[in-house]
Design goal:
Distance between the termini: 25 Å
CATH superfamily of the largest domain: D-amino Acid Aminotransferase, subunit A, domain 2
CATH topology of the largest domain: D-amino Acid Aminotransferase, Chain A, domain 2
Order of helices and strands: EEHEEHHEEEHEEEEHEHEEEH
Number of domains: 2
Number of helices: 7
Strand content: 25-35%
Helix content: 25-40%
Radius of gyration: 19 Å
Number of strands: 15
Shape: globular
Structural class: alpha+beta
Amino acid sequence: MIVYNNSEYIQLQDLSIELDNRAFNYGDGFFETVKIINSNAFNFSVHYLRIIESCSILSLDFNYTEKELSKVIETLLIKNNIINGTVKLHFSRDSRGKYLPVSSKVNLLIVSAKGLGFQLNKAISLCFYKEEIKTKSKISTIKSCNALLSVLSSIYARGNNFDNAILFNTDANVIECSNSNIFIVKEDIIYTPPVSDGCVSGTMRGWVLNHEIVIEKSLSKKEILNADEIFITNAVSGIIPIKKVEETEFFSFELSAQLQKVLISQS
């Protein structure tokens, strides 16, 4: 396996992470996972815009153009003979210092993995996770290296025999799931929480907003349970239908299946 590390393509076994790495010590960085379909980075322009926005929020200096970064990914895929799968880009501040860094230069590591293209997804179950909540801030919208809320909620879901967990913000509104954005359908109208409520600004969330008329509004627990249809989205799996939230069952998967078919046809 070849990885890309700061302008070099090296063997994975030759990769070393220094003990003073800021992502390791302080969570000072973020990551971006991109779906690879037929050797192409799917929806990459949207991913690139989120990378630039994340760097701006974290005051990181990142100088790759979209074309340059796309070429790096293309070369990595060729070296690893990957047709379908994912690439994960790790951005961290390459700087000495403790809480106060010396500079804002970016350390970039990209790893790739083989996988499948988009497929129709089976319906899954969700639970509510309330032991920890998410703040409404700019940091909440990016894929930060500090993903403890996603980790803990995923552990909670598994421990209670659910597939994923619904997260809340400081206003007790539903914002997203452990690894996905959330949408509900009520009387043929699609709703999703606004980014200002603290959810990750997901690239697949953006794809749905570009293909359907969606109302962005704060959602309550009651609105989730009274929905006609629920689906969640992420860059790797696409559109995932929901069959159950806690003890409430859902039987409509029409829109989620329709959107996933469109996604498959475009990839």
